[in-house]
Amino acid sequence: MGKAEYLRARYRNLLQFDDAAPLMGDLKRAGIDVLLLKGAALVAAHYPDPGLRPMVDLDVLVRPTDVERTIAALAGRGYEPAVSVDQTARAFAHSAPFAREGAVPIDLHWRSVEGDAEDEAFWERAVDVRFSGVDIRVPSPADLLLNACIQGQRWDWDAPQRWVLDAMTVVRSSGARLDWSRLIERARARRAASSARDALDYLRATFEADIPQRVLATLATARVSVSERLADRARRVRPDLRGPVLIGALRLDDYRRLARSGAVTPGPIGLLEVWRRAWNLDHFWQLPPQAARRGARRLWQMLRHRLKR
What's this model's pTM, rounded to 2 decimal places? Predict the structure, then answer.
């Protein structure tokens, strides 16, 4: 990172924190628990200088029961949602961006990450920090490290390597405070043991991160079903190169998560509903022709990719 980039990131981050502090104060006074997530949590609790970790928005998590009041507080500060945030939309998503002219965007989460509906333990292990004059909470070091590892193993069009710096910063700044048993427990609960192990093994082998070998060994023995393994593989592959098997595994994984949370009806109708929403269709009868079109296009994309090799 060059000096100009560092100064730009530092100025922007400090501006984001100062701009969001009044909103955080409003929520705290209203009795709404708030957790900072992702970059904001890392800067507030682990990076020694706010200029070392660029951010494009501010991610905050509230409990599902506090979403309506939080949306009202955001509206009171001039923020408007960029997408629908009604009850149905919230059942299928885990967050929504809010914007205000002249201010940095705020990404409001009602679940910590996509696919993780069981957040109570996430809240229980949170730690207190000081955020621009407001006392607020951030996830535990183990939760922040796990999230960085999971995100680092997923395909992204921008292919960011920031997860490596985030993960190494958490490991080095936490020391003995890093609860490895907690990381293993949460990786298993999120069905992400394979991703976590691969990421931690990479950090240990490439950057000599202080990661106990027993952690890698324990994660390697976690039981992972075939469908979960395929869904994990699908998230690591560029979307236009995912074949029908990987796409099917990904949709099945989404269905199981949404069925557990009550967002869809258990059974074939629920699975079709997940597929319909994933393709942004209005009716079930549109699924067969859409599947045929997408299948043909996917086959051509994969064939063209092979011919270029």
Answer: 0.87
* Sheet containing 134-138: order of strands: 80-81, 95-99, 106-109, 58-61, 35-37, 134-138, 127-131
**What one-letter code names the amino acid at 295?**
G
Residue 294 belongs to domain spanning: 226-308
Cα 28 to Cα 25: distance, rounded to the nearest angstrom: 5
Q: What's the pLDDT score for residue 183?
A: 95
* Separation of alpha carbons 118 and 297, rounded Å: 37
Of 174, 191, 220, the residue that ends a domain is 220
| Sign of torsion over alpha carbons 121, 124, 126, 130 | positive
Successive 10-residue mean pLDDT values, the chain, 309 residues: 82 84 88 91 91 88 93 93 87 89 88 65 86 84 94 78 93 93 90 92 95 95 87 87 87 87 86 90 90 84 74
Would you call 270 exposed, middle or buried from its count of C-beta atoms within 10 A (0-12, 13-18, 19+)? middle
User: Do 17 and 107 sit in the same domain of this protein?
Assistant: yes
**Residues contacting 63, CB < 8 A, separation 6+:** 32, 33, 110, 119, 123
